[in-house]
Amino acid sequence: MAWWGVIKHAPWGEIAKAASRAPDFLRELRKPSGPAEPVRPTTSTPVPDAEQLKFEIEVLKTNLDRLRTYSESQGAAMDAAAKALSASFDAVTRRIRMLTWLAAAALAAGLTALAVALLRY
Q1: What is the tally of structural domains in the chain?
Q2: Sign of dihedral through CA atoms 24, 25, 26, 28?
């Protein structure tokens, strides 16, 4: 029944507007495309020259190198944290194993004492 709420609260007005624009959109898609026109800038700013583009490429390369260095240092930090966490888990595992053996030994000693007490009675 959740789908009924979705249908009930759908933006039907927006859906109707989009549906009314669909025929125009399809007509535009069906128009045959003519020869490709060169793309001209629509703004009045001049096209940057080759030196400016080279400078921007160098800036991008520098930023990429900085980002790569940062991500490598973060990866090294994550590796160090993972190793520390692994060592911590290993210590906890050793303690649990030791406590399990102690509990098993205490259980065996308790059962032996109970058996001895029952046999003496």
Answers
A1: 1
A2: positive
Q: What is the total residue count of the chain?
A: 121
69-78 pLDDT, tens digit per residue, is 888 888 888 9
How large is the C-alpha radius of gyration of the chain?
Answer: 37
| Residues 6 or more apart in contact with residue 41 via CB below 8 angstroms | 47
Tokens found for residue 15: 């859906």
Residues 6+ apart with CB under 8 A from 56: 48
User: Among all chains, which residue has been given the structure tokens 């990866």?
Assistant: 75
Instruction: Report the distance separating Cα 66 and Cα 70, nearest Å.
Output: 6
- Report if residue 37 sits inside a domain: no
In the numeric block, which tokens belong to residue 30? 């069906």
CB 47 within 8 A of CB 41: yes
Sign of CA dihedral 72, 73, 76, 78: negative
User: How confident is the model over 10-55, as pLDDT tens digits?
Assistant: 676 777 777 776 676 666 666 666 555 555 555 556 656 878 888 8
The reply to whether 55 falls in a domain is yes
Residue 38 lies in a domain: no
